[in-house]
Amino acid sequence: MFSFMKRTVFVIVAFALMIGVTFAGSSIVIKGSTTVLPIAQGTLEAFMKKHPDVQISLSGGGSGEGIKALIDKTTDIGNSSREIKSKEIELAKSKNINPVAHVVAYDAIIPVVHPQNKVKNLSIDQLSQIYQGKITNWKEVGGDDLQIVVISRDSSSGTFESWDHFVMKKAKVMPRAQMLASSGAVVTAVAKNKYAIAYVGIGYVDNNVKPLQVNGITATLDTAMSKEYPLSRELYMYTAGDATGDVAKYLAFVKSTEGQKIVAKEGFVPLTK
């Protein structure tokens, strides 16, 4: 349904696009969410072709790390798959930084299972009970008599924060859950384990895993954009104050028709049809 686009490399190691020689020009540093990473990677490649005098480096690490880097003044753009927290805003302002949000795409968080799993739909309540460890066998939700292996993103992930908001509603994820550091790692783990369940952004769903409906609704570009799908969210790029110079040009490109076509190509939901 959606293309994986060989993202594993990008979410395990910092990806940097440099031409390998020194020249006059500006540079942009982008850090943060592994969910937003493919959007940033695709758009910066196209942007640099148009602006060869601009160097851009890109790395993942999670939404929390991107916002922290913005506050610490070690990045120009902090990618995040969640809205900045009030305590992060307070910390930023204590350092004379005013975080400004730029919505660059929409996303849907999709529960995924092994392709051989016959379960097709789960309610939000069932998902919560599975992740709390209250439902432990697939037969309890219409599947085979198999123990459920729960896989989650780590707590520094914006996707984890969104899952907590939409599904867990402050309930704790079971201690036995496997906490993984990237969306690519999550997909790989589920593809290899017929007992597993996990969740990823819409752009990471590929033929190696089976996406589930939530409350009977399938995640598509249309249902995510309209927010009919219950686990829909915005994806952000944050700057310290209003963007200026090449950073502003890059963000304008991401939001442009050409940039949003790249967003769609990467499997995410563009801002407009």
3D architecture notes:
The protein is an alpha/beta fold. The chain has 2 domains: 8-106 and 234-265, Periplasmic binding protein-like II (D-Maltodextrin-Binding Protein, domain 2, 3-Layer(aba) Sandwich), CATH 3.40.190.10; 108-226, 3-Layer(aba) Sandwich (D-Maltodextrin-Binding Protein, domain 2), CATH 3.40.190. Helices cover 34% and strands 24% of the residues. It has 10 helices and 12 strands. The strands form 2 sheets. Strands 1, 2, 3, 4, 5, 7, 8, 9, 10 and 12 form a 10-stranded mixed beta sheet that branches. Helix 9 packs across helix 10. The longest helix has 14 residues, at 37-50. The protein is globular. Mean pLDDT is 91; it is low at 1-24.
- Encode the helix/strand succession as letters: HEEHEHEHEEHEHEHEEEHEHH
- The chain-level mean pLDDT equals 91
% residues in beta strands = 15-25%
Largest sheet: 10 strands, mixed
Please indicate the count of domains: 2
Give start-end ranges of low-pLDDT stretches.
1-24
Determine the fraction of residues in helical runs and give it as a percent range. Answer: 25-40%
Level-1 CATH class name of the largest domain: Alpha Beta
What is the overall shape? Answer: globular
**Tally of alpha and pi helices:** 10
Please state the CA-atom Rg, rounded to the nearest Å. 19 Å
Corresponding CATH architecture of the largest domain: 3-Layer(aba) Sandwich
Cα distance, first to last residue?
Answer: 18 Å
